[in-house]
Amino acid sequence: MVINTNISAENSARLLAESSAMLAKSLARLSSGSKIVGPADDAAGTAVALRLDAQINRVSAANNNIGSAISFNQTQDGFLSKIANAFDRMSELAILAQDVTKSDSDRALYNAEFQQLAAYVNNVATKDFNGVSLFSSASLSVTIDSDGNTFSMAGINLSGSTYTTATGSDVSTTGAAATALANVKAAIAQLATDRATIGANATRLQYTSDQLSVLQENLTAATSRIKDVDVAEESTQYARYNILVQAGTAMLAQANVVPQSMLKLLQ
To answer: In terms of CB atoms within 10 Å, which end of the chain has fewer, N or C?
Structure first.
């Protein structure tokens, strides 16, 4: 038995320090909800989780872009549905103006309404969505994934010749009314094609949005398995380390008492 070097106390102190460190780490995991408190806990897992988190944020941003594009499409179709009503009425006026029992004065009244509807169509052609023209011939590139790939959303051009020819017509005479009818019918056919294009764009964007939502959910689950703490398991570990710290503290106190027994040998 020796006095200068208390091996039992040193061993107890080392084990107590290890248990205290593990207890502190377990407490940090439970309080943060993450099993990776620092990079040293899981170096590779930290790197993978960092990349996954960045991708999740990019996917969310892309989905937001798609949501805006869908709103853009819906706004376009809202205007076009009203233009369809206007063209329907314009075609009806063109037929009414061809009535041989009507005078030129009657046709002038029909023409007044016809011109107002044409002005409405021309006005809608200038509308925009958050500063972006709703009815331009240019296609819009919509971001559809976390890598920045895009979908070319076809533009709808209300300033095209088919529309402007129809809105530039009149029904002031029977001959003009017949020509106007042909022009308006062509515009209605073009409008039907354009609304179908908008519908196709919206369908594509909605499917892409759904796909991104599923991807985001799966990526979140993947990073959760890497980072999130299992509370039940960690609570068990916390209880274990807490007992070890208490036992270690008691044993260190006992180990420090052992050298005092050497005094009895000197009496």
So the answer is: C
Closest C-alpha among 49, 3, 76 to residue 219: 49
Whether the CA torsion 32, 35, 39, 44 is positive or negative: it is negative
The 8-class DSSP code of residue 71 comes to: H
Between CA 176 and CA 94 the distance in angstroms is 9
Q: What is the mean pLDDT of residues 201-227?
A: 93
Check residue 186 and give its pLDDT. 97
Is residue 217 pLDDT above 70, yes or no?
yes
Looking at residue 97, what is its pLDDT?
95
- The four Cα atoms 163, 165, 167, 170 give a dihedral, to 10 degrees, of -150
Q: Is 170 left (phi over 0), alpha (psi -120 to 50) or beta?
A: beta
Asked whether the predicted pLDDT for residue 3 surpasses 70, the reply is no
Can you tell me the distance from the alpha carbon of 197 to that of 194, in angstroms, rounded to the nearest whole number?
5
> Burial letters for 94-132: b for 16+ Cβ neighbours within 10 Å, e otherwise?
bebbbeeebeeeebeebbeebbebbebbeebbeeebeee
Round to the nearest angstrom and report the end-to-end CA distance of the chain. Answer: 16
> If you count DSSP H runs as helices and E runs as strands, how many of each does the chain have, helices first?
7, 4
Q: Where are the strands (E) in the chain, listed by range?
A: 128-129, 132-133, 140-143, 150-153
Instruction: Tally the C-alpha atoms within 13 A of residue 192's C-alpha that lie toward its C-beta.
Output: 7
Q: How many CA atoms lie within 13 A of 258 on its CB side?
A: 16
In 3D space, the residue among 8, 77, 1, 37 whose CA is nearest the CA of residue 266 turns out to be: 1
